[in-house]
Amino acid sequence: MSDSFDVDVDLWRDELESKRAEKDEFFAEHPQSPIPPEERDDFDGLDYFEPDPDYRVVATATVHDDPEVVRMDTTAGREMRYLRVATLEFDLERDDEDLEDGTYELAAYRLESPNEEQLFIPFRDKTTGQQSYEGGRYMELAPDRDLEDGDELVLDFNLAYTPFCAYSETFDCPLPPEENWLEVAIAAGERFEESTPF
């Protein structure tokens, strides 16, 4: 791994815990929280996997100069149009001998909008529907410039989050396309079980 991607694990963990506390406060108190108002009094914080720096990986980008349109189904039965702008390849290396190392790929998308710069990375993995939301989870990246082939960027699965539609049917969320279904358990980021009480 490049030295520029090395991280102070203690500082990284503190920052992650701070972000999680901030999000819990938003969910508990903010008018735009996805938790229905009548359930907020019972909300005592989101459920997370333990922070794990092994799931903070460096991905290499392959950029698609003429991005294809990808139509993603949504939880409300609609379709949303995205552009597949890059493919991100990364290695997972685990100390746990029961888990396989491997090289994986995720497509990164942008909304079909001229001003959209953020990369959207929806995915499913082997925790989906068991330890995490059945509709998959999301990550977002905001590169500071246009990506080029071979660029490296950090994918931190500890930041993977559950879409708002898990908490309320008033939200309509895109479902990860099959090309972003990972054949590995990503035990990082937000957990979600259908029985989770709020």
UniProtKB/TrEMBL annotation:
UniProt cross-references to Pfam families, sorted A to Z: DUF1684 (PF07920)
Coiled-coil residue spans: none
Location of the region described as Disordered in the Swiss-Prot/TrEMBL record: 23-47
Gene3D superfamilies according to UniProt: 6.10.250.1680
InterPro entries attached to this UniProt entry: DUF1684
PANTHER family reported for this sequence: DUF1684 DOMAIN-CONTAINING PROTEIN
Protein name as catalogued: DUF1684 domain-containing protein
Organism of derivation: Halopiger xanaduensis (strain DSM 18323 / JCM 14033 / SH-6)
